[in-house]
Amino acid sequence: MSSLRSEKLRSLLDAWEPRSVATTAYLKTLGITPQDLQNYTSSRWLMSLGRGAFKRPKETVTWQGALHGLQSQLRSPVHVGALTALEMWGNNHYVRFAATRACLLSPLNVALPLWFRTHWGDEIRHVQTKLLPPDLGVIEQTTPEGFALRTSTAERAALELLHLAPKIFGLVEAGLIMESMTLIRPKLMQSLLEQCASIKARRLFLYLAERADLPVMRHLDLDRIDLGVGDRSLVPNGRYVAKYRLLLPKELVDPG
């Protein structure tokens, strides 16, 4: 290996964030050429994850490290959302008996690269949706590994969770989670509810927040929140909530 290529490799490895992915596009900005990459991989200084991405040998990369590469290097509009975001914000005050895949959300027609799906596809669930504007209620949150990931705020994540219930998440579980969300910020929640594309999610949020007597309900302007028309039947043989025109599990309607 030439001294120039060796120096480039040393600088690259020194700057590499532990347990993360480096994309070809990012490496190109560092002056790493395709010939360099071929030499580095053949010499086992780098390991290819497939077309467009690399990691350091003998290093375990989690989906969080891979997502960090997508967000920071490729500017991919994919964020951590729904239950996974709520867990990151500490809103999982109950025991889950089954492991679940991490929930990542993006606008419609945004695909995860093949290399990401090949290595972490079994650990994540990618949902394409037009539920909310892409940047509303999405901020950076640092994982225990130290990665700053674009993540839904608790307020946005609650609507994402309700939008995906009952198909992906249980309605009763969602109700239990909502009971713990006493710190919802009214201004942000108002904006999210007004711009949310799902009538079902809007109605569910208001019903569950009212049921749990969450403080946010005393500050929302309900006249500005469109609840649509017609009934929404979410379970067979459920209990009907006339105010919000929802058919829900009896556990969420009948007195405990």
From TrEMBL:
The residues covered by the Transcriptional regulator AbiEi antitoxin N-terminal domain are 6-97
Q: Which Pfam families match?
A: AbiEi_3, AbiEi_3_N
What protein name is recorded for this chain? Transcriptional regulator AbiEi antitoxin N-terminal domain-containing protein
Sorted alphabetically, which InterPro entries does this protein's record hold?
AbiEi_3, AbiEi_3_N
